[in-house]
Amino acid sequence: MLSVLVIAVAVGLALAFMPRTEGRDSLLRVIFGLQELLFTLIRALLFILPIGILAFAGQLSSQIEAGVIVGSLGKYVAVVVTGNLLQFFVVLPLFLLARRINPLRVLKGMFPALAVALFSKSSAGTLPVTLASAEQNLRLDRRVTRFVLPICTTINMNGCAAFILVTSLYLMQNAGIAITGGMMAVWVVVAVIAAVGNAGVPMGCYFLTLSLMSSLNVPVDLMGVILPVYAIIDMIETAVNVASDSCVATMTDHDLKGKLPPAESDEPGTPVPQAA
């Protein structure tokens, strides 16, 4: 997974610095066509996924005692949810307070985006609402939001990183692999890097973690048990991701206040958009 991420970054940078030739445009059209093909396959997979879940859960329940799974699964879910809530209510407000920004004002202004993220489970799908909330409710500079928020939607995946870390350690521990302090520190870095490559779509973290564990030959049977409760985890993760994106945009706007040249919308006589 990490090698794929490195190759993807290298290819992306090469495409960005390539001269605008006919060959480059043709290559980009092929890449966009492959992207549409993959999205079509993913939609088909999600369509038949309930049948696979039912069969997978039935096979797993015949092999593992229910009491052991229920007890460990409850602790696992508690750790994942607590980690995300700590980020939302403690870590992100501390970053804002360090720059003397009122966290409650940011939370109130971004509430529409957080609500959409919670129920859509897609930070990419929430991006238009995130942009509108940041620009209309928080009055952030449009040049900042249009640059920062799309990038954060792709690489700023706090909730996903927490899920990858906890789930990977949970699967390895149940597979009999000894977890040491050094290994946990390494997996913190791995989870953060892997989250950068996650797509801002529903269940993106789940499939990313599944492929990561499969590449390490770690048994992934327990992923079938996690799947029924992942919908709730995914909702919380997406809200945390969007909240983190909003905080980054707010702090960037705060740091650049007075340093950017006046925008056209800042000229005298230009009406200021009203909050929704």
What can you see in these coordinates?
The protein is mostly helical. The protein contains 11 helices and no strands. Helix 2 crosses helix 11 and helix 6 runs parallel beside helix 11. The protein is globular. It starts with a helix and ends in a 21-residue tail after the last helix. The C terminus is likely disordered.
Quick structural summary:
Helices cover 77% and strands 0% of the residues.
| Intertermini distance | 42 Å
Uncertain stretches of 5 or more adjacent residues: 265-276
What order do the SSEs take from the amino end to the carboxyl end, as H and E? HHHHHHHHHHH
Biggest β-sheet description? none
Share of β-strand residues: under 5%
Q: What oligomeric state do the depicted chains represent?
A: single chain
Q: What share of residues is helical?
A: over 70%
Give the averaged pLDDT, no decimals: 82
Which structural category do the helix and sheet elements fall into? mainly alpha
Please describe the structure with a list of short key phrases separated by commas or semicolons:
276 residues, mainly alpha, 11 helices, 77% helix, disordered C terminus
SSE order and pairing:
Blueprint (H helix, E strand, L loop, with lengths): L1 H16 L4 H40 L4 H33 L4 H7 L1 H10 L2 H15 L4 H14 L2 H17 L6 H16 L7 H12 L7 H33 L21
Helix pairs in contact: 2-11, 3-8, 3-11, 5-6, 5-11, 6-7, 6-11, 7-11, 8-9, 8-10, 8-11
